Amino acid sequence: MKIMIIGAGASGVSAAINIKRKYPHDEVTIIEHSDKALKKILATGNGRCNLGNKQLHLSFYNHPELFDKYSFKEYVSYIESFGFKTKLIGDLLYPYSESAQTVRNQMLKLADKLSVKINLNEDFIDYEVKEEFIIVKTSLRTYQVDKLIIAAGAKSTKGLGNDGSIYSILSKHGYAITPLHPGLVPIKTKENTKLLDGQRLKAKVSLLENGKTIFVEEGEILFKKDGLSGIVIMNLSNHINNNKNEYKIVINSLGENIQELQENHQQILDKREFLSQYFSPKFVEYFISHLNELDLIKALQNWTFTFKDFYDYENSQITVGGIDLSNIKDHFESKFEKNVYFLGEVLDMHGPCGGYNLTWAFMSSLLLMQ
Ligand SMILES: Cc1cc2nc3c(=O)[nH]c(=O)nc-3n(C[C@H](O)[C@H](O)[C@H](O)COP(=O)(O)OP(=O)(O)OC[C@H]3O[C@@H](n4cnc5c(N)ncnc54)[C@H](O)[C@@H]3O)c2cc1C
Description:
There is one protein chain. The chain is an alpha+beta fold. 26% of the residues lie in helices and 25% in strands. The protein binds flavin-adenine dinucleotide.
């Protein structure tokens, strides 16, 4: 059987390995339009590749029902079958070497050993499903294959191979694509944050959609000259769906100090002196110039920003949205094009920071084989 996979990312290369392990006589070719296979892996986890999360909360995904079949232990043993050891740092799973290069090298070595063919610098352009086979057109030639697996990622980020061109091809074939926007991405706010550029603050952050709280997480916020970043903000960005709604980001920066502060509220005479006990000088300046003295504690508890825009796809780790799951059936096969399959980020499936998205990419390749 001839199998063609589009995209030499985490889901595409792992799918090729799985297929060759189970069906060594199948001919598996990956078409990759960039000059390197597994290029994005090198950028993950700041070069350390956060492969997964011991607290594999399926409810953190927008479609948890897609994969409840594997435990974290089974996932780790699958990852280690690529030929490297892993370790946990807190709850986060990394290669033992803490180097994404190890993941890439070992996966490619294994793919090569299994005779997976990877064609680089070749762009997938279109395909035609016939009764008995599929015609695949690339920038270099035309192929005839038995199965086509689309593992071409989404729109994050161009420099790592993802230009979103796959969605124009698939929408021509009639696939419904849920609204796309950058995910795990910093956000721009209507309020001016220039004075705080580069400052960090640990806080409880809530996201309100038209006044209703839809997401709460504690973490470190990194202020940017025109908005907010940090893992807690990036996780929050996945929940902003529609620019027509109003989204407010509410920061409670007082945490456990709130009770003591409330008790002493009446005695606060010198605002600057008071704030300096809790905040770094930049924040003190910002608060002094922005807050109303009478509402000091209330304001610190409900420090509110208004969402203006996402940073662009180049700054995003994932794309929210993708092929609508109503278009696929078991094993990620298309409902209306026989022998066409989808894997990984190209589908409308995403999770938060902390290894969840690579877990999905690898797990989807395992579920394909079930
Ligand atoms: C900076 C950064 C850091 C990240 N860190 C982490 C992390 O630590 N942990 C984590 O879990 N997740 C992380 N992610 C997210 C994770 O990398 C992705 O969710 C995952 O790589 C998706 O895998 P995929 O195989 O579905 O798609 P991709 O890895 O995007 O692979 C798709 C491949 O298809 C190719 N392609 C696309 N269109 C075509 C075409 N028309 N023709 C031929 N080839 C094509 C692309 O070049 C690409 O190589 C990070 C992402 C980024 C950008």
